[in-house]
């Protein structure tokens, strides 16, 4: 073994000793996402993840049975959840916050690269496509603004009959279309416009007349 290899091995061992629990899991998640973005899900290996995370491969097998399991869990942890106002008293503000959460959390280069790689693999594997929805998207609330809209419907502020799949899709669809068309993230003014000109009218509420809580 060369001196360089001894140095690299020693550094990896020191990193392993330093990191435990949640810190180590976070490092493994990050490594799995980086490896997926770089190599694709189909070429992902436990060895590659462990090497990038600076930990032993056995550390991975103690918790996960495959690289795919790590990526799915990492995506679940990465996927933000909406937190609407407990009293359901700021529909417009909560919708805007939900779309900003999408922009700031999910419309970043690393997430786009990872999701592109996962979806490419999912085109060949229906089981992976189903798992992506059941274990990540649906488990974290589904479409952005969906959690907010359902919350307000449950509090009697929105007519539930208006909450169709198309309405749930409006915010996400317009955010993604902007990114595709402009090659940049939507700014706050555009997010405000999505809410004021598309979502609120679709559920029967204009920006000037927000829901008051009366049925």
What summary fits the major beta sheet?
none
The average pLDDT is 88
Query: What is the gyration radius calculated from CA atoms?
Result: 21 Å
Classify the helix fraction into a percent range: 55-70%
- Summing up helix and strand content along with how strands pair, one would put the structural category as mainly alpha
Shape: elongated
Number of helices, where a helix is a run of at least 4 consecutive DSSP H or I residues: 11
Oligomer: single chain
Please give the domain count.
Answer: 2
- CATH homologous superfamily of the largest domain, by name? Tetracycline Repressor, domain 2
CATH class of the largest domain: Mainly Alpha
Any idea what the CATH architecture of the largest domain is?
Orthogonal Bundle
- The CATH topology of the largest domain is given as Tetracycline Repressor, domain 2
- List segments where confidence is low: pLDDT < 50 over at least 5 consecutive residues: 3-8
Distance between the termini: 76 Å
Order of helices and strands: HHHHHHHHHHH
Classify the beta-strand content into a percent band: under 5%
